[in-house]
Amino acid sequence: MSIGWRLAAAGCSVDVFERGEAGRGASWAAAGMLAAGVETEPGERALHALNRRSQELWPDFAAELEAVAGIDVELRREGTLVVALTRDDVAQLRFNYEFQCGEGVVLEWLTPAAARQREPHLHPQLAGAVYCAADHQVENRCVVRALKRAFLAVGGKLHEHTAVSAVDISGGRVTGLRLGEARHAAEVVVLAAGAWSGEIAGLPPPLRPPVRPIKGQMLALRMDAAAPLLRHVVWTPKVYLVPRRDGRLVIGATVEERGFDGNLTAGGIFSLLEGAWRAIPGIEDLPIDEMSVGFRPGSRDDAPLLGPTAIEGLVLATGHHRNGILLTPITADGLSRFILSGEMEEALLPFTIERFAAAAKEEA
């Protein structure tokens, strides 16, 4: 939807085909964290640079989206706390802190008392914490509603409950899409089907996105919006907790390799509640507001697939795994610029599908 918004605003004729209701997939099930800092891990330097760049774009992107759509996307800048509950947790937190600081992430090491000053409902026996002032959040459900309105406002055409069965290719270039028995002609096709991207027919096997569904169970509790239990995003050793302005407290998320299994499970929900309760005991008095399942689009290396392919006119925008909301601005801006001008933003270059072909050659 964000790529379509950018292209339609530039004067292109854009049709978005959605198998269900727009924005009701992984984007709806997400938590909306913009955690380019505290999610930085060893071996992901290029991904970290991409995440940081997109995080920097979010304030202007949010302001522009709100101005066009008239919907507040609730960009909140209280920052993020990462907490340790045991001595082992502190050792892991210290390792992550030192590594992330070495990568240029600005972090503040907090004593337990300092952490509880920021969030008084943290466990009394808290062992330590780190604060990242630059890691924020947006209300992802407001974002997708705003994107839908913005896309339509600039002349985009949205086709909901219209599944794409295949991409039409002739002479080494894209010619359109198959929608059941119908055909839609197109000069450029952006494959942005999330966890379902690898199931679209018509692509040569080497160009079929190696994307799989990674199941995530989540739940939301209901706080008093006037006196919320939490104000910061809080990461614990087991779960994350994201407070919303309307009083919801989002707790997530499991990471499961179970295909498109949409069942909520007792074990999954128990692990979320236990993980949250160990850090914030007061949640036991809160009513459960919602429980849900989403499917993250995960690639072989858990990094996104962005940009052109060997088929002229076929562009990929999938495989964002846990970072779909965070990477929305740079995905939209970078890929729309490529489609309009043929120029790829440098930060996107490591994330084309060609990296898997190159890896296969090295292994051979």
Q: What keywords describe this structure?
A:
364 residues; alpha+beta; FAD/NAD(P)-binding domain; D-Amino Acid Oxidase, Chain A, domain 2; 8-stranded mixed β-sheet; 18 strands
Lay out the secondary structure.
Layout: H1 2-9, E1 15-17, H2 26-29, E2 33-34, H3 45-69, E3 80-84, H4 87-102, E4 108-110, H5 112-118, E5 128-132, E6 136-137, H6 140-153, E7 157-159, E8 166-170, E9 173-179, E10 182-185, E11 189-191, E12 212-222, E13 233-235, E14 240-243, E15 248-252, H7 266-279, E16 288-298, E17 305-308, E18 314-318, H8 328-341, H9 354-363
Parallel strand pairs: 1-7, 3-13, 11-18
Antiparallel strand pairs: 2-6, 3-5, 4-5, 8-9, 9-10, 12-15, 12-16, 13-14, 14-15, 17-18
Summarize the model shown.
By secondary structure, the chain is of the alpha+beta class. It has helices at residues 2-9, 26-29, 45-69, 87-102, 112-118, 140-153, 266-279, 328-341, 354-363; strands spanning 15-17, 33-34, 80-84, 108-110, 128-132, 136-137, 157-159, 166-170, 173-179, 182-185, 189-191, 212-222, 233-235, 240-243, 248-252, 288-298, 305-308, 314-318. The protein has an eight-stranded mixed beta sheet. The protein has a three-stranded antiparallel beta sheet with strand order 8-9-10, with no helix packed on it.
Overview of the structural elements:
The chain is α+β, with helices and mostly antiparallel strands and 364 residues long. The protein has three domains: 2-72 and 140-210 and 303-363, FAD/NAD(P)-binding domain (3-Layer(bba) Sandwich); 80-102 and 111-128, no CATH class; 212-298, D-Amino Acid Oxidase, subunit A, domain 2 (D-Amino Acid Oxidase, Chain A, domain 2, 2-Layer Sandwich), CATH 3.30.9.10. It is built from nine helices and 18 strands. An eight-stranded mixed sheet has the order 4-5-3-13-14-15-12-16. Strands 8-9-10 form a three-stranded antiparallel sheet, with no helix packed on it. It has a three-stranded mixed sheet with strand order 11-18-17, covered by helices on one side. Strand 8 (166-170) and strand 9 (173-179) form a beta hairpin. Helix 3 (45-69) crosses helix 8. The chain is globular and about 65 Å long. The protein starts with a helix and ends with a helix.
